[in-house]
Amino acid sequence: MNTLGRTIRTGINSLLLHKLRSMLTTLGVLFGTSSVIAMLAIGEGASYEAQEQIKLLGSQNVILRSVKPPEDPNQGNQTSRVIAYGITDADLSRIEDTFPGIKRVVPMRILPKEVRSGATVLNPRVIATRPIYLDVTGRLVFEGRFLTSEDERTLKTVCVLGTEVARALFPFRSPLGERVKLGGDYFTVVGTIAPRVPLGDDPAEAGIEVTGEVIIPFETARKRFGKMQVKQRAGSREMTEVDLHEVIVEVGDPEDVPLVAQASRVMLGKFHRDRDYEVVVPLELLARAEETKRIFNIVLGSIAGISLLVGGIGIMNVMLATVTERTREIGVRRALGAKRKHIVTQFLVETVCLSVGGGLMGVALGLAIPLAVEHFADMKTIVTPTAPALAFGISAGVGMLFGLYPAWRAASMDPVEALRHE
Amino acid sequence: MPIDVVADLRAVERVYTMGNNRVAALDKLDFRITRGQYWSVMGASGSGKSTLLNVMGCLDRPTGGVYELAGRDVNTLDDDDLSDLRGAKLGFIFQSYNLIAQLDVLENIMVPLFYQDDPPPDGEERARRLADRMGLGSRLGHRPAELSGGQQQRVAIARSLVNDPELILADEATGNLDSQTAEEILSLFDELSREGKTIVFVTHEAHVAERASHVLRMRDGRAEEVIEQRAISSAGASA
Ligand SMILES: Nc1ncnc2c1ncn2[C@@H]1O[C@H](COP(=O)(O)OP(=O)(O)OP(=O)(O)O)[C@@H](O)[C@H]1O
Ligand SMILES: [Mg+2]
Fold it and tell me: Is 0.90 topped by the overall pTM?
């Protein structure tokens, strides 16, 4: 005869005697458990996405970006003026010449140019940059080749398309050797590169829908398009002059990243009157993301702890009432030979069955919620295998903990008193 | 001490103290019950009958004197030992049946076996036989709520027999039953007595007491008189 098995079966039978009450009692633990799992999954998913994006920026990189300073209201609404801001060529040389421990530096200009082929017009991100862009950003050539230093030196009008752009412009044929019109000039397609998640908003030209990229040689762009960019607005023309929109500084040793970040901030702070730049350090973002996640986990843990505590108290409350209600039964069992430990076991098993039942349903719900969130809110969620195990273990523990007192109360009853109980 | 003494009470007292009030629910009780005897305990309400049964059933301890059950002095036993003793040597039958609501008939009969350290391997077989004998063979899967009072009391009697006890204690076992059902239950007790079971049966009713071999009349916690109504046929029985 399997004693524990029978005790569990009897316990479940006792609980089933009051189905509604047992159901309601488990709700606390059910929601506690499911919210732990769901929140962990959502948190984990969000942090994973953040980390992936940060990793795309390159954890060994320090990224300097030009930021258009807020408009000076004193300047009035001039119809035509030139706003010069951002990272300058001089900044670039200073970085290249004086910064310690840097491996490669990639200057980039973002050009607000339409790209056409035949009747198709696109507004992709047009990037003028150096050949090392490919290596530093870890992109892969899909077809043909990337830009070369030969292209730079001879100011070739060649371009490399992101595969999305290539597909949009040349849906049924290879883009290699085709010519696209960029502003007023024709560029020959020499290759395509595989897509990746976009870097985020282009700080220089917010508002332009970025659909893939077109990459052209840095020097060619300088020669052909200059530094000035003109934007037509209702009733006014805005001209901006930016040397470099973005500079990726690749550091040789990850250890040196904070140093280079610091040097960049100091240098830019010294040479720029306005804050017309920002320094993005993926490693710092990563650290910050991790810190955010840690805080999130603490908050989450507290919420989960409180909800499970409340659930546990609910269970304890009901079990205390049950013990009182079943005083007579306890007396009878004691008369028939039950020891205190048998009574303790019986009520503890019942409490654990309640909380584990709630825990199991909570795990099921907790696994369903992330699916729903992914489906309806289009957010990434990650259920780590430890989360359901943890939640389940905790719910069983809660049952144990909060079952102890009612069980002890039941076991310490005087058999005679218990038998006399109405 | 001869083996066939089942219960031996020597100057047993059970005193309740409430503030300065002392109530002697049992006052210097002296008697012994040997195997096969059928005792009936009578007395007015509050005379201490239930208290006596609680002490004899090892649910309560005497506050004075010595009570030996099957040769063991209960004052020397701890709570767990008393549980063991109840489970092994005693059968209880209550006025209000006291079956366990969430268990079916067969499980209810087997409850005393659940708590034994090494339950008999043929426990279920035994429980089924007892149920058959009590006329409950077709009710094994029923819950107590689905049974009549008489049927419930039969389950309780089967339960009290499943551990083959030395002593069966019944507190007004027919008190909740109509006279015909009570008569059926009393016949069962007669039958058990004829088989050699030792029984202590608390009752208010004289005609019930007539069936017993001994009548213990109680008054204010004292044994007013012990009447031996008939000798017990089984070997070695003596008053
Ligand atoms: N827990 C207790 N505390 C104080 N006094 C008690 C307690 N239990 C019983 N008594 C007293 O002991 C005496 C005997 O009570 P007991 O229940 O044994 O009577 P009884 O003969 O079984 O009566 P009845 O026929 O009504 O069942 C009573 O005076 C009662 O008040
Ligand atoms: Mg009584």
Answer: no
